[in-house]
Model the fold of this input.
Amino acid sequence: MDLSGVAQWVGSRRAGHSLPQHLYLSPDAFDFDLAAIFGTSWLLAGFTAEVKQPGDYLSFMVGRWPVIVVRGRDGVLRAFHNSCRHRGSILCKPGAGHAPRLTCPYHRWSYGLDGRLLAAGRMPDDFDKTDYGLKPVHLETIAGAIFVSLAQVPPDISILRRDLTPLLEPHNLERAKVAHKSVLVEYANWKLVVENGRECYHCASGHPELARTFPVGATQYFDLEAAAARLFTERMEAIGLPAGPVGEDWWQAVRFALNDGNVAMTTSGQFAVKKLMVEAGGGDAGSLRWAVEPNNFCHSTSDYTFAFNAMPVSPGETHVVSTWLVHEDAVEGVDYDIDELTHLWTQTNLQDKVFAEDNQVGVWSPGYTPGPYSPTAESLTLRFVDWYCARASEYLARVPV
Done:
């Protein structure tokens, strides 16, 4: 990885503009992003609803790095590098599952759910199993959301915990279940995928289904018409639902009103799930949008939570992992229909796939030069790119170039 090139590209970025071409295209920039961004940040790994019982696990890739989250026999959630201490094979392929212990499929080394090495056949008498437990990854849970960090010393998460919890806790994610999960392959750099997901400049024409319920004309950070916004905030406070906004430079959360006449983010604007996660106000509670850099956003409404994770695969490939959570007591086919529940965000994701891939092709052009962001329509995209450059610069200052 040529850090001198990356340093030059980051340093040449013009304020208020998109990134220099090589930061979207270069293999060196991709390797840098894994180390400097994904290797140092808190990442939304999933939800406690996905690992409820002892032995439940969630296996996923962060770029080239396999990680596993598992519920121990003691009920504690732990995260580990998904790499056998023998010769490095992954223990569990990506996905969710259940196992009484974690056993390497290669040479059958077996680990407890707490990461201890339990068995390693045909090793010498002086082999000490206590030296070969799985290597841990930092893990924190906040109101039913699971965050992991691969950093040796992860960023301070205390303000995120303090300020997000009151907004997210009423959505009862601890009492949720996964209704549906999908993976969409997008042939675009992860930053282009995230930039697209951080703005609605394109939404009025690009997302007709979303535009029915979502205030696509909002400026800045969901700055809606002042009087209407004030009335919404007062109504939320009256039913015990904080609205925010809260956040730091690497995360933000706010509850906002949906378009008039709509109570849910669905194609009909009405609830897709009869068993609500939030009963307050009859479920007419807008949407809580919460997003964590570098690669995530979520919408928690009264009937479901939708989570979007853009996982980097290569300089020109990103996997968009989408998760829909509903009340644990909701019955498919009775309380909700999968197609109705997932249609809005599935269509939005497919539309965004085209935008991101077209963006990637255009960035390859020798005619590409970074263009200016709209300070109103693309404020969150600008915020993301500013955060990315600041974090990149901090990393470059710590390592030899």
